[in-house]
Design goal:
Length: about 240
């Protein structure tokens, strides 16, 4: 079972975090929304991609622990030091949901392109596999956004996959550089108009159109960011559905 049309869930939302350390995770409302969008709520097949952090074993393991004992049937695609599956295309196309972990969006997109994963993900998107993720896993589908891929001071990233013809700002309310940097990058033309999400919020795209903004709790919002002719940027809060 797959989505009714090409669907991307681009978020600043994460797992529910437990009390036993930084990698004590359980699926969040955002993951269950991804399964719902894929029309696969009984035993949704979810494949995790962690290339933005270099495929560390502890992060891959944390994802398996998160999904263990739940309705999800989890797998992962690893590219460091080599692919862990013989047929990447077949593996990704048999999923209901692909979840992309955060980290360096610049490294993520570069590694995908080296292995041809970008083309496979586009095919999966068109076939109805729901593409989803957090932070770098949100920016990647867009033209670009603000990133710490190059150091702690945020810079503009303009080499996203670009299937969604917008800029994308993540962690909008949680990191002090995020909001002003997105305004700067859009205002000076480095990035085009786009959308931003507070931590806990996500953007649901049907095709290349924003269908709705969602949040895993009351409070987080999504925003549209548009540049005027004089370079000023208008930020407009968007209606946000709490899951």
């Amino acid at each position: 079972m797959t989505a009714d049309e090409p669907t991307i869930l681009a978020t600043s939302a994460f797992f529910e975090v437990g009390r036993y350390g930084s990698n004590d995770w359980r699926p969040g409302k955002i993951h269950r929304l991804a399964a719902e969008l894929a029309n696969a709520t009984a035993k949704p097949r979810i494949c995790v991609l962690t290339q933005a952090t270099g495929d560390p074993e502890e992060v891959i393991g944390a994802h398996y622990r998160a999904f263990a004992g739940t309705e999800f049937v989890a797998s992962h695609l690893q590219l460091f030091p080599m692919p862990n599956v013989a047929d990447i295309r077949a593996h990704l196309l048999e999923q209901d949901v692909i979840w992309v972990h955060g980290g360096s969006v610049a490294n993520l997109c570069a590694v995908w392109r080296v292995h041809g994963v970008d083309e496979i993900l586009h095919e999966a998107w068109q076939a109805g596999v729901v593409l989803s993720g957090v932070s770098a896993g949100s920016i990647c589908w867009h033209q670009g956004g603000s990133t710490d891929s190059f150091g702690p001071d945020l810079r503009g990233f303009t080499d996203g996959l670009g299937w969604l013809p917008f800029s994308n700002g993540v962690h909008y309310d949680a990191e002090e550089q995020r909001r002003p940097k997105m305004h700067e990058l859009i205002g000076d033309g480095t990035l085009g108009d786009g959308y931003a999400t507070d931590d806990g919020a996500g953007l649901v795209y049907r095709g290349t159109t924003l269908a709705e903004v969602v949040a895993d709790r009351p409070g987080p919002r999504g925003y549209s960011l548009t540049r005027a002719a004089d370079g000023s940027v208008t930020e407009t809060p968007l209606p946000t559905r709490v899951l």
